[in-house]
Amino acid sequence: MNAYDIILKPVMSEKAYDGIHKKIYTFKVARNANKIEIKQAVEQIFNVRGKLKRQGRSEGYTSKSKKAVVKLTSDSKAIEFFESLA
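Structure (tokenized):
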């Protein structure tokens, strides 16, 4: 699967705009992509490093779309696309 097939488009909402200053970005991603593929796609497309984080178990209903919230390290460069929006 190509990196551009995994990352479909950025999510533009008020909550997503608030995270840009903290280097937190939200993307709509392919439903069949897992966390590892999403991380590799973001690193490949935008040439950045992600923040290491563990997530616990959660349960809930499956939505029709899937989104990924990407947190970058403080010393990582920002994604240029979002800099013009902030």
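Strands lie at 7-10, 24-29, 66-71. DSSP finds four helices and three strands in the chain.
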